[in-house]
Amino acid sequence: MHHFNLKYLTFYGVAISSVLLLFKVVTAYGESNLKAPPAMKSRYGLVFNEKLPICDQSNVLILNLQQSGIYLNGFLLPASSHTKSSNLSETTSSLTGRLENRQLSLSGKAPRYILCNLQTSQTQAKISHKDNSSIPVNIQIQLTDKEDLRGEINVSGTSKAIGLTAISQKENEQSEQSNSH
User: Fold this and answer.
1) Is CATH 2.40.50.140 what the domain over 43-179 is classified as, yes or no?
2) How far is 97 from 45, CA to CA, in rounded Å?
3) Under 8 Å between Cβ of 77 and 61
4) Which of 30-34, 92-96, 165-169 has the lowest mean pLDDT?
5) pTM passes above 0.70
6) String of b and e for 123-151 (b: at least 16 CB within 10 Å)?
7) Which of 116, 158, 165, 166 is deepest in the core (most CB within 10 A)?
8) Domain ranges (residues) in the chain
């Protein structure tokens, strides 16, 4: 009977109660204060308020996003891109960023031919050196509860940021493109 000593039973009772109380406190804190970042759609059409200063004409781009928590990878694609040229664009246009306080920030480099939506039917070899040069790009978008998002793009070599609207692309458009491989 001396296996059930009152000191040992008290010690184990206090230890188990402390662990359960600590678990309850940590769980309550996590449920009330730790929230997952909002899930971003994977494809947005970017419509600029005015033409980019480095381009001759106004254009529309596709922003393809991949999200892992608050970290984002993005690829700029010409709006008229076909799936065959998309793979080339993804290797030459790479943006990285974060999602903090409902603010999406992406930065990286994109070739001029993508930013200016130049002929995508040309092969990489036919694109001039000037059009193939990578240009630093910085995109800021504020998340809202609306479907269309507003933000701005800053292209290196320009003095001001250009306003943009990010329009969510339908999922079936994306799946149609992936089915055509």
Assistant:
1) no
2) 18
3) yes
4) 92-96
5) no
6) eeeebeeebbebbebbbbbebeeeeebeb
7) 166
8) 1-35, 43-179
Q: How far is CA 136 from CA 12, 19, 159, in A?
A: 62, 52, 13
172 token code pair: 């079936």
- Joined together, the tokens standing for residue 143 give 């998340």
In terms of Cα–Cα distance, which of 169, 26, 38, 55 is closest to 101? 38
Residue 148 in tokens: 């269309």
41: Cβ–Cβ under 8 A, 6 or more apart, which residues? 65, 168, 169
Token output for 99 = 């999602």
**Strand 71-78, strand 94-100: pairing:** antiparallel
Token readout for 74 is 């993005």
Tokens (6 digits) for 68? 């892992």
3-state secondary structure of 141: strand
Instruction: Indicate left, alpha or beta for 134 from its phi (over 0: left) and psi (-120 to 50: alpha).
Output: beta
